[in-house]
Amino acid sequence: MNSYDIFRKLTRGMKFDHNRFKGDLKKIGVCKTKDDDQSSVTVNETKEKEEEAVDEPESTEENSDEDDVEEDEEGQVSMLSDIQIGGSEATGKKEKKKKVISKEKQLRIHQQEVNHQRNKLGISVWGTDVPDPVETFDDMIVKHKLSEVLVSNLLNQGYSEPTAIQKQAWPLMLQGREILGCAPTGSGKTAAFLVPILNQLGGPQRKGFRAVILAPTRELAKQTYRECTRLSEGLGLRVHIISNVNKAKEKFGPKSAKKFDVLVTTPNRLVFLLQEDDTPPIDLSNVEWLVVDESDRLFEGGARGFRDQLAAVYRACTGPNIRRALFSATFSHDVQHWCKLNLNNVAMVTVGIRNTACEDVKQELVFCGNETGKVLALREIFRKGYEPPVLVFVQTKERAKELFKELIYDNIMVDAIHADRTQLQRDNVVRAFRERKVWVLICTELMARGIDFKGVNLVINYDFPPSAISYIHRVGRTGRAHHQGRAVTFWTMADKPYLRSIALVMHNSGQHVPEWMLALKKARKNEKKKLSTKHPERGHISQGVLYEKLQKRKMKQMKGKSKRLKMMNGEATPKGEEETAGIYLLSTRCEISEQLARLAF
Ligand SMILES: Nc1ncnc2c1ncn2[C@@H]1O[C@H](COP(=O)(O)OP(=O)(O)OP(=O)(O)O)[C@@H](O)[C@H]1O
């Protein structure tokens, strides 16, 4: 090994302009001698010949850029001269010199192109042998044998090309790789996992469930079920959602259990069925794909989380071919750690900057002073004019009811959804909101994740979100699928401890926030945890809620009327009085507002 060889080894991977530093190289005795050239020719010629046997040598324009090649790393420095010398030696004729790119170089160029494509899409990947992202639906058909029926279903949905997460997750999952996918809200994660799974299931096999998709809420499970049904049209697959565990028990009788291929459900319902005595009515031993949507939410521990349920589902998926896919808009180190430990050859895909709000949402913070100020600010937004549908987030179901009562007389088609409402009421409210019969929907955290209401233009955080993660999901109900959206967040002094983390999320997604907010003291980890589980104490939404006032006035009037009747007849009993009062109250409630009667609050 001469000095030049040592120099090449030491500078491997570095760009070095040999021409420019020719003098210096001579001084320190690092020069290419004729012998060096000759020896490297032999090595590379053999290498080239081996490669020619595998691949047809290509002549490419890229290789004609000598400077570029000269500045390249070790292997390529000698390659240019090798090719030229090798070419003329082999032929001995004046024919045009054929420039051949070595396999190594081809791979490097290809990798550069792939990196460029990933950078452009904001994709970062972790894992070994991650396949290249695709560009188009046609790519998926040609390179990954995606079913044309599926592509036609995608086109029927109005999708013209895959989104960034789909471009990377589809080829990965089609190779059967386990995956942790993290991409902004509204970026098409649902289709990112549904498409490869449906493609791999192919058609019905009457083996029972082969794919299980878990979602944290019933509303999200229903939405995923609908999308799955739409995308699987024409494939013959049967998709099922557990909406009622008792009905499900009947449905999964020994005869019918095998007819379904895909199950969409919340973890609680599934675990309830799995834990039925003796023989569970549901069998997951043939499951090939288990998807955990909103994975960071499902991985949360404690009473609110679903860790135990997830563990029970994993245990029930006993098939040898089980693969898992976890998706969420927000990233959690716990989930990442779990994936690295438990998944086989996992690949992690992230789109954009982790844990930032969607950049298509214009975000504002509005200081309201106190609770009365919030009501005024809300009315001001509505007075200035707004384009329905609008989502308004509050921190508890009690506050949802209170705000509903406050707004019901404002000539706004308003409704509320929260855990105290029945399943039927919740379904009806969601349908009415989708059909634009309800303009303003007041909701709790229940609707913060995953729900895809088309065309929501405005999200109002009436109550400040309890964490940055909650903020990201809430504001992500607008600005979906590259549509522009707007999010307004009210705050009072009670929200100051949370302010910095939300301001930071806004700042990271390109929004303007005052410097002083970013300079606020950072909350400690345990403080943050406490804040996210314990809501700040807030006064009533309105000191004298109009609805309550009207109720009281009516009751007073009715009592007076009843008293007068009693005095006139001298026979009315207190019981009769109460009944009359009840009927009167009900009828006046109906008169007060058609909406109120419909919503049966
Ligand atoms: N390739 C595509 N082209 C155009 N629109 C798409 C594409 N894929 C999905 N969409 C649409 O984008 C919207 C958001 O998709 P989806 O609900 O899957 O988002 P998400 O990433 O799961 O969001 P979240 O994190 O809030 O759950 C949906 O209306 C969906 O129909």
TrEMBL record:
Keyword RNA-binding belongs to the record: yes
A Pfam cross-reference name: DEAD
Annotated Helicase C-terminal domain residues: 360-521
Renumbered residue ranges of the record's region Disordered: 32-105
A GO molecular-function annotation: hydrolase activity
GO BP of this protein: maturation of SSU-rRNA
EC number: 3.6.4.13
Gene Ontology CC terms, in alphabetical order: cytosol
Gene3D superfamilies: P-loop containing nucleotide triphosphate hydrolases
UniProt biased composition (Acidic residues): 51-75
Top-level EC class as recorded in UniProt: hydrolase
Reactions the enzyme catalyzes: ATP + H2O = ADP + phosphate + H(+)
Domain Helicase ATP-binding: 170-349
UniProtKB keywords: ATP-binding, Helicase, Hydrolase, Nucleotide-binding, RNA-binding
Family: Belongs to the DEAD box helicase family. DDX52/ROK1 subfamily.
Name the record gives this protein: Probable ATP-dependent RNA helicase DDX52
Organism field: Penaeus vannamei
Native organism taxonomy: Eukaryota, Metazoa, Ecdysozoa, Arthropoda, Crustacea
